[in-house]
Amino acid sequence: MSVDYKATVFLPKTEFPMRAGLAKREPETLARWAEMDLFARQREASQGREKFILHDGPPYANGHLHIGHALNKILKDVINRAHQMLGKNAHYVPGWDCHGLPIEWKIEEQYRAAGKDKDAVPVLEFRRECRDFAAGWVKVQTEEFKRLGVLGDWERPYTTMSFDAEAQIVREIGKFLDNGGIYKGSRPVLWSVVERTALADAEVEYHDHVSQTIWVRFPVVKATNALLEDASVLIWTTTPWTIPGNRAIGFGEEIAYGVWQVETLGEDSHARVGEKLVLAKDLAETVKADAKIESWTHLGDLPSGEGSGLAGTLCAHPWRDFAPAEGGYGFNVPLLPGDFVTTEQGTGFVHIAPGHGADDWALGLQHGIEIPQTVDGTGAFYEHVPLLAGALVYDADGKPGDANGRVIKALAESERLLHKSRLKHSYPHSWRSKAPLIFRNTPQWFISMETNDLRKKALKAIDETRFVPGTGRNRLRSMIEQRPDWCISRQRLWGVPLPIFVEKKSGEPLRDPAVVERVATAFEEEGGDAWFSSDPQRFLGNEYKAEDYEQITDVVEVWFDSGSTHSFVLEARPELKWPADLYLEGSDQHRGWFHTSLLESAGTRGRAPYDAVLTHGFILEEQGKEKMSKSRGNALSPQDVVDNQGADILRLWVVASNYEEDLRFGPDILKYQGDAYRRLRNTLRYLLGNLDGFHESERLAAADMPELERWVLHRLAEIDAQVRKNVEDFDFHALYQAVYTFCAVDLSAFYFDVRKDVLYCDRPDSLRRRACRTVLDEVFSCLTAWLAPILCFTAEEAWWTRGAGPEESVHLRTFPEVPAGWRDDVLADKWSKVRDVRRVVTGALELERADKRLGSSLQGHPEVFIGRPELLDAVRDVALDDIAITSAITLTEGDGPAEAFRLEDVSGVAVSVSLAEGDKCQRCWKVLPEVGRAADAPETCARCADALQHLGAAAQ
C-alpha cells in the first residue's frame, strides 16, 4: 500500500486570512468592543494601578477630521494603549474646543449664504445656533475618532461649552481678577477686519503678501546738530495707511547716520535739488538709486552711540502745513532711540505709529507718546482722522481698500513723498479667513506677565518640565521670555463671557470673589447665556448697585478656555490626576495650547499642568515640498483611507514615520505601509498556522531547548527591554522599527525559514518540534502585546483567532513578563557569527539556482571553507545544513579555492556548491543517501520513516 506523504506533513492551519480586509473587518471589531465595553473593562482591570494621564488637547468641533487630526489622535492612542500594557491605568478623556471664532465663523458663513444679517439676530439665538452646530460636530468627530481605533471615555468627554466648564473658566478668570493680574489697557493687537475681532498668536499664519512701500520726508523743526538744520529725516514703511497714526521716529543708537544734499536728479525723480536728507550711511547708495538721484553731496556724519546727534531732535508730521489737513497734524514728531531699528531695509529710520505695532506701542509708552485711535473694527478710519475719514484699509472680504492710495496721494500733493514701490514679503493673515490682518489699537482686557511674577513662574515651570524632543523647551522658553501681556478679551458673541463689572466712577474692575462665584453658579445651571439673559443685579447681589457699574460684554478668548481645561477635567474628575503626565500636540502648540495652559496654570497654581510635553510635526504632501491641506488641493482624508485600506494602515504610518519631524503622506507612502503591514500580518499568520493544536503538555523549559530556540528567547528578552524603554521614552518610532525588524529579519527571513522543516516533518513529540512550538507560543504572546498599541485591530483579530488566554481582548493584557534568564549575550554573539556564515552559504546557493544548476537549495551540498578560527568555532557544533536549508554540508578549515563564492562583508568564508548525493525524500524533500532504506517507508529518509511509524502511517 502506498502512503500519502502529504497528508502526514504538519502543514499550518489557521482561520486567520492572508488578505486582511481591514475596511470590512475593523467595524466588526469596533462593534464587539462596544458590546463588551472594552474601555470600562480596562478600567476595572486597572483598579489600584499607577495612573498614566495623557490630557487631550481639544480639537475644534467644526468639520470632518483631516489627516492632522488622525496623526494626533492615533499617536495619543498608541501611547495610552502602550502605557496601559505596561501595567498602568491609562484613563483617557477626549475633549473638544467649542467656543470662539472657528464655530462663530461657520454660523456667519451660513448667514451670509442666506443673505441674513448677523447683527439682526438676537444674541441668545445666535449663541444657541453656535452651540447646536458644535454639538453636532462633536457627535460626527466622535464616530470618526472611534473608527481610527481610538479608545477613550467617549460617553463622558469634556467640552469647553459644557455648563460646568464655562463655570470653571469663570472661576479661573476670577483668580486673576482677584490677585490683580487682570487689567484693562489700550494696545495694538492683530485684528481681523473680516472677522472683526482680535486674534491670538496661535490664530495667525504668515503668507507672502505684496505691500506698497513709501519713502517719506519728515522736516526737522528742532535740530540738535547743525547738520540737521533745514534737513528732512527720511523714513520707509510697508504700511502707508499708518502715516496718520505717526507720532514719533525711531533710530538706532549704534547705527551710523549722515546727511546728504541732492545735486542732480534722474528722470521721474521726486527728490528736489538742494534738499538735505538724513539717513543711515549703510543704506545711502540704495536710497539714492531707488529715489533716482543722480548725484548728491555727503555733508557729514552724525555722532552715534548713546547721546547721539539725533536724540532730542524734533520733526514735523508730513502733513503739518498741508492745507487740506486743516491743522490736524500740527504736532511735533520726536526722534527716539529704539533697539529694534536695523539697517536691513529702508532708510535706518522707523516711523512710529504707537497704535499700529507692538514695538511702536512699547517705545511710545516708554516716552509718554500719545496713542491715537485711528481705525475702527471694520478697517475704516474714524471720522475725526484728518484726510482719511472713512477710508478703508481692508474691506469686509479682506481686499485692499482705498486707505493706502489716499495716503500716498496726500503725501505726493504735500510734496513729502520721495519714492514709492512694491515689496513681496511675509505678512500676518487670519488662519480662518486667510485675510491679511492689521495692528489696531483697541481697549482690551489683559493678564499681566509681570504682576504676581507670572513670567518668572512660567519660566521656572518650563525648566521643571520634560520635553520630547528636547528642543521644545528652548522654543517655548523664548516665547515666554519675549511675549507681551496676554490679551484675553474678544469682541465676539460665542464664548464664555468675561465676568467683569467696571465701576463707572473709578473705571476700575470690580474684584469681588463673591460676585464671580455668583456668576459661576449661574453658569453651572444655565451656561454662559445667563450673562446675557440676566439682570446684572443677580450677580452683583445686595452689596453693589447695577447702575454704578458697566457690565462687560466681551467674551474670553478660546485659548484661555483650552488653557483652563486642566482645571475642569484633570482636577474635577477623581479618575484622573493633576498635573497630567503628558500633553501631546503639534509643534505649533508651543505658541498655542502648551503656552496658554502653562500661563493659566502658572498664574493660578504656580506650576505647569503637565510633567511632560511631546510635540509632533506637520504633515507634508508626498514629495515633502509643501504642507498637506484642503486649500492646496493635496489633502487625503482619513475617512478615505479607512474606507479603502483600513485604520491599521494609518496607525502603522504614524509610528513608522519619525513623528518628531514633519511627516510625508500620500498614496505611494500608504502603499509602502501596506506592504509593511502584510509582512507583519504574515508573521502572525505563520505563528497561528504553526501553533494549531498546541497544548501545554508540549511546552519545554528554556534550558532543555536547542541553541537556536534559546537565541530566539534571547531576542524576545532584548526586545522586551527595548519596548518598555521606548514606551517610557515615548519613542514609538524606535519601538516599531525594533519589532518590525524582528518580524521581517529575525523571524520571517531566518528562524521561520530554518524551522519550517522541523515544524512540518519532525514527529510531534520530537524535542526540536516541541521546543520550536514552545518558542512560537512565546513569540505570539509577546508579538500580539507589542503590536496591540499600534495595530490595535489586527492584534485583536490574531488574539481572537487563537483564543489564546483568559483575557477576552488583547487590550486587557499587559506586556508579558519575559524571564531575565532568557537573556544570553554570549549565545547571541555566537549566533551572529553563525548567521554571517549562513549568508555566504545562501548567497552561493542563490547563484547556483539563478544559473539553473540547482532547482532547490535542498539539492545542494555546499562545502564551506572558513579561515577565521572564531567563525569556525561558532559553527562547528551547529547543524549548518539545517540552518542553511541544504541536504548536506561540509566544513573545511582554510581559505578555499579562488573561484569559490565570497561576500565582501564576511571575510574568511568561501563556499563551493556541488550536488547532494542520494535520492529525494518524498516527505521532506531532502536529498540523502539513506532514502529508501526503510522498507515500510521506501521513499523516505530515516527521520521521516520514524515519523510515519510514530503516526501509524507507514505502509503495511
From TrEMBL:
Q: Which Pfam families match?
A: Anticodon_1, tRNA-synt_1, zf-FPG_IleRS
Motif ('HIGH' region) positions are 59-69
Question: Reaction(s) catalyzed by this protein?
Answer: tRNA(Ile) + L-isoleucine + ATP = L-isoleucyl-tRNA(Ile) + AMP + diphosphate
Please state what the protein is called. Isoleucine--tRNA ligase
> Which stretches make up the Aminoacyl-tRNA synthetase class Ia domain?
30-665
Keyword annotations for this protein? Aminoacyl-tRNA synthetase, ATP-binding, Cytoplasm, Ligase, Metal-binding, Nucleotide-binding, Protein biosynthesis, Zinc
- What PROSITE patterns does the annotation carry? AA_TRNA_LIGASE_I
Where would I find the Methionyl/Valyl/Leucyl/Isoleucyl-tRNA synthetase anticodon-binding domain in this sequence? Answer: 709-857
Top EC class, one word: ligase
Q: What is its EC number?
A: 6.1.1.5
- Annotated ATP binding lies at 630
Query: Which InterPro entries is this protein grouped with?
Result: aa-tRNA-synth_I_CS, aa-tRNA-synth_Ia, Anticodon_Ile_BEm, Ile-tRNA-ligase, Ile-tRNA-ligase_type1, Ile-tRNA_ligase, M/V/L/I-tRNA-synth_anticd-bd, Rossmann-like_a/b/a_fold
Q: How does it assemble?
A: Monomer.
* Cofactor details (free text): Binds 1 zinc ion per subunit.
Give the domain note: IleRS has two distinct active sites: one for aminoacylation and one for editing. The misactivated valine is translocated from the active site to the editing site, which sterically excludes the correctly activated isoleucine. The single editing site contains two valyl binding pockets, one specific for each substrate (Val-AMP or Val-tRNA(Ile)).
- Protein source organism: Pelagibius litoralis
Keyword Protein biosynthesis among UniProt keywords: yes
Q: Which domain of life is it from?
A: Bacteria
Q: Which GO terms describe its biological process?
A: isoleucyl-tRNA aminoacylation
One GO molecular function term of this record is:
aminoacyl-tRNA deacylase activity
Q: Where is this motif: 'KMSKS' region?
A: 627-631
Assign the protein's first listed, main location to one coarse class: cytoplasm
Q: Where does Zn(2+) bind?
A: 921, 924, 941, 944
